[in-house]
Fold these 2 entries.
Entry 1:
Amino acid sequence: MNPIVRNRQIVNGIVLVTATAATLFSLFWLVWILWTTVSQGAAAFAPSLFTKMTPPPGETGGLLNAFFGSAVMILLAVVIGTPIGVMAGTYLAEFSRGSRVAGVIRFINDILLSAPSIVIGLFVYELVVRQVGHFSGYAGGLALAIILLPVVVRTSDEALRLVPNQVREAALALGLPRWKVTTKVVYRAGSTAIITGILLAVARISGETAPLLFTALNNQYWTANLATPMANVPVVIFQYAMSPYDSWHALAWAGALVVTAFVLTLSIVVRLFFRQRTPR
Amino acid sequence: MPAVDIETAAAVAGDRGTGAPTLRRRPVAGASTPPGDRLFGWLTASAAYFVLILLLGIAVSMAYGGRLAFETFGWQFITGRDWDAVARKFGAFIPIYGTLVSSAIAMLIAIPTSLGIAIFLAEVAPRWLRGPIGIAVELLAAIPSIIYGMWGLFVFAPVMAKYVEPWLNDHLGPLPILGPLFTGPPIGIGMLTAGIILGIMTIPFIASVMRDVFQAVPPTLRESAFALGATPWEVVRKVTLPYTSSAVVGATFLGLGRALGETMAVTFVLGNAHDFSKSLLMPGNSIAAAIANEFTEADSDIYLSSLIALGFVLFVVTFIVLALAKLMLVRIGRNAGTKG
């Protein structure tokens, strides 16, 4: 074989093998981390996880109050963030076509999307906690809402832009006002994609720890009062993992397993569901 | 995966300028806008402007909360090395340095790996394997960062301490220039461990954007190169990379923005030390980790203000990095629109 061609083939081979190795390298970490979480979490897993409160060191207990607190705060975040996010996405997709302002808002929204979550926690601390004078579940929910918002804005904007224009024109031709066209027709056409976006956002905020550290803080006891500090799974995991007690470490791993399983399942299910619905 | 889905969409799809065709209902002369429309338009517009106000609000409140620290220390806040809660003297050089160094290590790992994954998915993997591998890589982004932190502290740091760091001490330690970076007690907790974990976390963000922009290369260009006899690597180097160069840089900036602000994963393994050390094996600190560790312990106004000022610095830096990333990615969007 011509030596030049052979050299090119060799270089090509080296690069492609390296690329394959890089892929295996990243999958190696994925498997290692998931394996650690599953094996450590399963070892510590017990039904009492869902029936007992977070214990003092050395005693047995569960994470019931933390699960409840997380669920309430995520729900609050969805209730606050979704309407605003879908509305903003509606404005971008429906009412501001091609305008400069829409470009700026999309740009800022994308930056908000990747902004460090700890800064959002600080922001809510300044805005709410410091003004009110104490940590609260409301503040935690608000911080999560701010993280959820840009995700919902982005996905509903894209979902609505994918709705064919003929749909709008047909509705308008029937004499419907714009707001009815949007709410009754366009939303219905884009609903699957919008819901997908909301679920992805929920998956994202479920594991967020940094923004809750100084908003919801933590609470060793059961509370359904959002105006007080509230237990939540990520912060409990953080505190227990950083503690010197083995029983707390075990609980932290069990909590980690539950959160990871929830987030990954949600992500995968949403993706499969969404795949089915969108023809390619 | 959720985060990556959105990131990727944000980076690629939305900005390709594929807006649906314009639909403007010009009011007929004499006809007025129905009140429902006016209300709805107003509602949606205020929600959209809320996003702008939110970002502005975050910037202003960070600056306001940190004003005491900025007023008291001035530029010393950035350059000072003392972080002394008792003497109430705060200089953020150590955390800023730690953030930059750990992110730099992360980029050294994440950029080549991500490029490799993108090349693998574009040129090596059979079609049926692309989807599953892509999803698997993106799952790395779906794992909550606190899990990375726990794994780092309990599993990875001991491995580093037992196997990797002694080896680095023995083999790289004696080198003339690099040596001091790798000399130190092999305790597993430190800048290097944090940087590696950050790198692993950043891979999916960079890789998925790179994969998507690689796919955006018009097939005619690639096929022409193949027809001339180019090897897959030559196609990547001479066609794909030049075509996507600005987006590839944008993708790395996006990953950098993520790495700079990552909190929980590094908080576990950095060691929260406020002493300067050249060695990557020594405990250090980062902006986000310092805030996470010390915020609830801040017992004086100036302490609290200094931590919020740290948040302001982090916010400004990530804003600039992310804005650059966006601009780079928008450029490929325009290219794809005109050339493709």
Note: Chain B has 13 helices and two strands.
Entry 2:
Amino acid sequence: MMTSNTHTFRRALFDLLSSMRFAISLLTLLAIASIIGTVLKQNEPYVNYRVEFGDFWFSIFEPLGLFDVYHSIWFLLILAFLVFSTCLCIWRHFPGVMREIRSYRDKASANSLRLMSHHHEINQPLEQEQVCQHLTEHGYRYRLRIDGDATLIAAKKGSWQRLGYLFTHSAIVVICIGGLMDGNLPLKVMEMLNIKTAETRNVPQSQIPEMSRLASNNLSFRGNVSLSEGSSASVVFLNSGNGYFVQELPFILKLNKFHIEHYSTGMPKLFASDIDVLDIKTGKVIQSGTIKVNHPLVVDGVAIYQASFGDGGSGLEFVQWDLLSNAKSKLAAQSQTELALTAGQANYRLEIGDLRPFNIETLDKTATTGDTSAVAVSPLQTALASAQSVQGDRNVRNLGPTIQFKVRDDRGQAVEYQNYMQPFIENDSSYFITGMRREVASAFAFTRIPLDQDMQLDAFMRFRSTILNEHLHADITKRTAAKALKAGGVSASGEAQFAEIAEGVLFQFSQGGFPAIESFLEKKVPQAERQVVAQTYLKILQSAAIDAMELAQAQAGLPVTPTDNMQYRFLMDSLVATSSLFDYGSPAILQLTGFNEVKSSGFQLTRSPGKNVVYLGSLLLIIGIFCMFYIRENRLWIRISPHSTLIAMSSNRKTDDLNREFAAHIEHLAPNQQQAPL
Amino acid sequence: MNSLSLKNRRFNTADVLFTLFIVVTALVSWQKYHSFLDYYEQGILIGSVAGLCWFGWFWPAMRVFFPVCGIIALGAIELYAGDLSRGQTEFWLKYLLSSQSAVMWMCVLFFLATILYWIGLLRQSATALSIASGLTWAAAGAAMISKLVRWYESYLIGADVGHIPVSNLYEVFILFCLMTALMYLYYEAQFAAKTMGAFVLLVISAAVGFIIWYSLDRQAHEIQPLIPALQSWWMKIHVPANFVGYGSFAIASMLGVAQLLSARGILTNKLPSYDTLGEVMYKAIAVGFLFFTIATVLGAMWAADAWGGYWSWDPKETWALIVWLNYAAWLHVRLIKGWRGDILAWWAVIGLFVTTFAFIGVNMFLSGLHSYGGL
């Protein structure tokens, strides 16, 4: 009784696990899990998730493995069940399928043939030979059986259709096995058993303990390493949850040179790395080559891919302008390093980021192109006209190299900068462009500082130091007042008062630029007059700027530049820049003057022994699907009795094709024969 | 019905002529260009001869379609004479044959075809349906010509810019219209059921609407060079294979809509029978499933070259898997459980939403490696 029950239970379990219902449920689960994995960004640093979801949800999501769904235990379990269930399904159906493929079903009786939906009976025996010839002609194989006084010709075609089932289902299993070979299941198990642990600290590679290192004979891995030009590595890093593992390589990878090319539109055209692969023991070159995106190099079963690129620590030369003392000095540094920066009493850290040699920018199509005389065209017409040509006329230009860096004060507050090396030219004037931001998320606020004829900041810095120097204000305003008197702008009696006002304006300006003047006006001048006074102040400041420049030139022992339009614009731009620099956040301006670029290249290295297994499975899958849908298994029976013939046909798919073919066979075998009365 | 099966269709004169035409074309190409072709490309040339001959034999209409499109495209190339700016000055190029003009003609013809299919369906007018069918053929021809001419135009922009026009969302939408229309025309002829067109052309018209907006509002028609990740010959086969899949799933879903309406007494007498719609829907999904599988496998092989692994659970890959699982389940319940009727129709309609998300939604809402067709 007991055994029988167990037996029934086992039978039921077997039926359930090998059933299609179960398989479809698993597929549904798999699909849902996959959707979660695509909606939730996978394998981000854990900090990001904490910020996004908050501690509460993080503490729920993290143990569920939602941050790496596809490698979580439960996901692998679903896959395992799917493979298991598919295996059982194959096991269950294999004998039947093989029987079907072999059998001709020649045991069919006349009655069973008459029960088929496609059958036809005529009152005349057909010529056996003629029938067989017809069958061969149409690709049927047949078997004859004598059944009493009748001969049954059982024919079939397209039995391979049945193999489609076996092929597709075993393909699923084969693909999963291949995937498993390339997966990190062994590593997961070792992690669970505490044999290996992921490293979470940021320490030099050589100091990472054995617990977090994987030997070079590891069956499969997929890791990354970034190399500067000229450097080499014998390990790659594998991301794992919140940390990483160090995977030893069976060779040394050396980057000689990284190449990057652009199209004329500024889009990247080529990323390529010239590499050497060295023997791990002797250091001799085993293989050399160039790898590109889409063209990996396979060495010793390890495929080396071009994955990313960047700055690899370039030599940089700066001119440093101290904004307090206005002193000019040279600074040599390297990108991606830190150094101390002293200005006055305060100490700062200069954290140099990446050098970017190209900054290609797409400018909008200028609206003024084409004839302006034309009658106003509707936007639709413009769009239609531009839709005719497949060649865009976008303006692109290379703004040249930039350097990004942070200046951190002793309280740990950092301000980030992005400075362009090349002058930015607009309306024949040249500018030095520096961008500043206090928060990583915000955009850079750019300041344009006008350059002198030598494309240097010297003239501007002379101007700035003069106009901000309170001791020189009296001197400047005296010149301004004298000029105003000469031009008849003020009367002789008003000259002193004018000078006094001008000095006041300069004082306010030297305290905080235009915003300082504005707040001064807000405090002291009634609102009704504010606009007029502001205009006057601005004019005074503009005139004083000319004199400040003249004074600065004189003090430096340099000739005075005549105040033409160019010079005037230079001065106005200098006023704006001086005002902006009050909120610059850095004690110095760093102007990049030269660099020696060293690029870095990011590589992905993989060993995936399961790849060919997966491809085999894929091939099986495609052949299987083809067999299932495009080979129709047809069976024909022609039962020739002495006085009648019974023709029946069946197919694994009840489609219109069957009706058509059946009719065609009848037409061919027994033309103009009436259906026998039943 | 004279032919029992493919195996027994005899070669007729038209087949012989077509084969001859293809072989001669290939020989001329070989003669002129074989020094530029590497071994792969020589193999592909020989393979395409075999493929085209088989295709023309399998679907006789292609014996006319391919040569006509090819000759017109060659004519356009001749008119260009190696100078892209002639597209704006040469009359035939400007108004008919430059790729953008051909696309605009395609759009117009598809819209007209849709309207005529509906007139034909509602008025039960065989004439309107025949004209609609003709317009769809013309639109498909325009799409084919635009693809061929655009391919050439891309090389006129720059030798390093030239590439097959299946590299961004704009280009693949035209491919989608082409594939869907051709597949539909095949079923229309095979099942002698032209009224299905009213529904299938709706989804094509939607795609055409998108193309027009995308081109006029976003200037998406401009030919852009290929970024390094796309510089691979896998693209030439992965993308078209995918669009056979998308196209047939779209057809299946529209037939699902027709079937659902028919079951509710709407247009029941005017549409093909409920079972015929179901049958065509099944055939479309079967062919789509096969090609989608091939496309996904090709995609995996490409990924193994470009991204360092054949499967990275990238959102696009994952959604391709979801689409695949969806239709695998659909086919299982139809073939093995023997399901028929409304539920499969509903499922096919929902399937289009899943497919559309995998096709466009992933690019719009999810980030990943496969971000070549962002809006």
Note: The CA atoms of residues 192 and 272 of chain B lie 9 Å apart.
